[in-house]
């Protein structure tokens, strides 16, 4: 029984501490982000952390235009056992979106939706982040989910028009994909025919060159044969007696 009482005491103490507003939080609510950031960092160093400490710190840095510090504050808060993670993910996504890091924004909003699937504001913001990355298919899915889940949203008509534009865009992209595929096929076929024609001409030129060389070789061969034959013709008065000696002989005909 005593153990149960102690556990209950710590829960009550923690809840009482979390509900207390720190000076850093008061400065933030008083629209003093610079002073709030300094005080909130000090409170974190002292371990005086509430459910909103990191959230206010991240928002204070965001108001100061220090986006990197803002994102760092939200991510530090994700490690805190007190933090409202879906709120931190959502706000971090907004800062990432504002800084132009749409991929990170999409990831943050996805984490917020994973923590709380009914957080449709994160679904809408994720749709916007996907749209900025030209992920039209997944953006369309998110917009449709949002208008189906939040039918009374004041922006409903604008979102429905955007859905219509995205559907047209996806049809256009599909048609363009088919056209490009056909164009690539046509170019590939043209290149194939061109290469075949080049190969044919090169083969003809090679054959003609081979024939010319063969004709030239045949002409040279015949010329060499003619020269060799002329050298082998023997005078009737000269005979060879060996490799280096020539026998000369003369005779007189006894015939009248």
Descriptive notes:
Residues 245-256 have a biased composition (Acidic residues). InterPro entries: TPR-like_helical_dom_sf, TPR_2, TPR_rpt. Residues 202-225 have a biased composition (Basic and acidic residues). The chain has 256 residues and is mostly helical. The protein has a domain at 9-172: Serine Threonine Protein Phosphatase 5, Tetratricopeptide repeat. 75% of the residues lie in helices and 2% in strands. The chain contains 10 helices and 2 strands. It has a two-stranded antiparallel sheet. α6 packs antiparallel against α7, α6 (85-98) runs parallel beside α8 (120-132) and α9 packs antiparallel against α10 (156-232). The protein starts with a helix and ends in an 8-residue tail after the last strand. 23% of the residues are buried.
**How is the biggest beta sheet arranged?**
2 strands, antiparallel
Return the average pLDDT rounded to an integer.
85
Helix content: over 70%
> How far apart lie the N and C ends?
167 Å
């Amino acid at each position: 029984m005593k153990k149960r009482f102690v556990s209950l005491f710590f829960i009550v103490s923690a809840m009482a501490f979390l509900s207390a507003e720190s000076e850093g939080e008061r400065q933030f609510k008083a629209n003093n982000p610079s002073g709030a950031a300094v005080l909130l960092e000090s409170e974190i160093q002292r371990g005086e952390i509430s459910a909103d400490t990191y959230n206010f710190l991240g928002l204070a840095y965001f108001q100061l235009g220090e986006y990197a510090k803002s994102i760092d504050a939200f991510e530090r808060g994700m490690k805190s056992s007190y933090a409202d993670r879906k709120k931190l993910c959502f706000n971090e996504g907004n800062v990432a979106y504002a800084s132009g890091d749409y991929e990170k924004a999409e990831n943050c909003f996805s984490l917020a939706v994973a923590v709380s699937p009914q957080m449709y504001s994160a679904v809408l913001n994720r749709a916007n982040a996907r749209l900025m990355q030209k992920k039209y298919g997944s953006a369309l899915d998110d917009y449709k989910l949002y208008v189906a889940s939040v039918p009374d949203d004041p922006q409903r008509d604008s979102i429905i028009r955007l859905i219509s534009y995205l559907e047209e865009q996806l049809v256009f992209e599909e048609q363009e994909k088919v056209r490009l595929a056909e164009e690539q096929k046509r170019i590939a076929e043209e290149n194939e025919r061109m290469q075949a024609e080049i190969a044919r001409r090169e083969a003809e030129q090679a054959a003609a060159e081979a024939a010319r060389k063969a004709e030239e070789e045949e002409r040279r061969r015949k010329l060499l044969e003619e020269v060799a034959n002329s050298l082998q013709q023997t005078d009737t008065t000269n005979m060879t007696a060996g490799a280096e000696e020539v026998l000369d002989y003369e005779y007189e005909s006894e015939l009248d």
